[in-house]
Design goal:
3 domains, 3-stranded antiparallel beta sheet, two-stranded antiparallel ribbon, elongated
């Protein structure tokens, strides 16, 4: 491997096996991560027996097989039992190879699993990492697009000419799958079964390949002869037109047109509140044009923002069909869709700031200086209440002013017409979602003036204003 021998030994201590303290970068997908895994396996830079006397002797095919299972998980949160079931290895062996991947800089803890006595064990979550030694060996250039982001988010932007050939070889290895090797004992048992006329399953699959040799009680039908398994493996009896694989290099199936439609429909139902409860197949049919044009859920939300926000929805799928009409022809380029996304996000940020200002204004209104009510009768009642509190604070009223105060209280009593005007004004404020007039008085006085119905309605409005599911405004 050319300059690989000049690199230092590959070893990551336990303190640096966390995502926050790692020196590597996060792999963008499982395929590129498997290229780094095969490079570590072939470089010989990591030797586990230099640091401990037990466990595997080297980074071998079994470690690569465990890494293949991890490359298919998103998020990478494997349980020990899951890996044991997938690989056929023991618990201790799986733990050894996970430790090897961490010490080689290929895995980093995001959340470490826990084991509580009497409870269920929690699996660890890993981030698939690419060591810095891999970038140095192949001459891969990386760039940090966001200066405020952590160092492990840097992305590759180029590769040296000397590393292209090695990268192509690693890509071919990453595209292949390493399977569990068959033991010699199982091969001898299969051969013995073939000699006795017994059909033996190969690689856990049921094969119907009669292999009678010599005298047998079972006769072949019409002299039909099928080739042995060795010739099938060697390629002599293979079909001249092999089937084209539908899987990507990373091991996942590529989505067809129908799959993209259903994926977009599922994301729309999850993110849009007014589509909750709609059938995903119906939404997939409604959004078929934009899905075929390559739109994402973010593009759809930006387009819906341009069309206008909705307040009341009776049938979500029908409204979505109307709003998405000719959307793919208006925003027909990625640049136009990106501009619409920027406008939508700017509107979201402006709405967020507006909500913050409203909360601050409401807090200042209730916690700041008190504003006197506009009604003359209510102001008289409030002034009399304040005067009573002030007199009680200084030791009580003077006896010679009791009659005068009683006369003033009688003269300040509002008339029936004023009470009706107050109730009408309070009802109008409640229709607009405001409770200022009712809340300007004490609970007992408000109940006596406005009645139980208006006071209860004010309580309901204030309770609903603290919920994100209710909005008040003018129509």
């Amino acid at each position: 491997m050319g300059g690989v021998v000049l690199l230092p030994e590959l070893w990551v201590p336990e303190a640096s096996q966390w995502l926050s303290s790692t020196a590597g970068r996060v792999a963008l997908e499982g395929y590129s991560w498997m290229q780094a895994v095969h490079w570590v396996a072939g470089s010989g830079l990591y030797k586990p027996r230099r640091h401990r006397s037990h466990g595997p002797r080297a980074f071998g095919p079994t470690t690569v097989r465990v890494a293949q299972e991890l490359a298919q998980l998103f998020p990478c949160r494997p349980g020990i039992e899951y890996l044991m079931r997938r690989t056929g290895l023991s618990e201790r062996t799986v733990e050894y190879h996970l430790q090897i991947l961490r010490e080689a800089g290929l895995l980093a803890y995001v959340v470490r699993g826990t084991r509580v006595s009497g409870g269920r064990a929690q699996a660890s979550e890993f981030a698939r990492m690419i060591p810095t030694a891999f970038d140095e060996a192949l001459g891969i250039r990386t760039v940090q697009r966001d200066a405020t982001a952590p160092g492990y988010t840097r992305a590759p932007c180029g590769i040296a000419e000397t590393g292209r050939e090695l990268m192509a070889k690693l890509a071919a290895k990453a595209a292949r799958k390493i399977r569990k090797p068959r033991s010699k004992a199982s091969g001898r048992r299969s051969l013995k079964g073939a000699q006795q006329g017994v059909v033996a399953g190969v690689s856990g699959e049921v094969r119907c390949t009669p292999m009678q040799v010599g005298t047998s009680a079972v006769s072949s039908a019409g002299g039909t002869y099928s080739p042995p398994e060795e010739k099938l493996v060697g390629g002599e009896a293979k079909s001249p037109t092999p089937k084209k694989s539908r899987k990507q290099a990373g091991g996942r199936r590529t989505q067809n047109k129908v799959g993209r439609r259903f994926q977009l429909a599922k994301e729309l139902v999850q993110e849009l509140d007014w589509l909750r409860g709609c059938a995903i197949p119906r939404i997939a049919w409604v959004a078929r044009d934009v899905a075929d044009a390559g739109w994402t859920v973010t593009d759809v939300r930006a387009w819906l923002h341009l069309r206008g926000e909705v307040i009341r929805v009776r049938r979500g799928s029908g409204l979505l069909a109307v709003l998405l009409a000719n959307a793919e022809t208006v925003l027909d380029t990625p640049a136009k869709r990106a501009a619409a996304i920027d406008q939508w996000r700017g509107a979201q940020e402006a709405a967020r700031r507006h909500r913050i200002q409203q909360v601050r204004a409401r807090t200042e209104r209730y916690e700041g200086d008190w504003d006197a009510p506009t009604s003359r009768a209510v102001r008289c009642e409030v002034e009399a209440a304040f005067a009573q509190v002030k007199e009680s604070a200084i030791g009580g009223r003077r006896q010679d002013l009791d009659d005068v105060a009683d006369d003033q209280a009688l003269t300040l009593e509002p008339s029936e017409q004023e009470l009706a005007e107050l109730r009408a004004a309070a009802a109008g404020e409640l229709m607009r979602g405001e409770t200022t007039l009712i809340r300007s008085l004490g609970p007992e006085m408000a109940l006596s003036i406005f009645g139980e119905r208006l006071v209860r309605r004010a309580d309901q409005l204030e309770g609903g204003s603290r919920s994100s599911l209710m909005t008040y405004g003018h129509r």
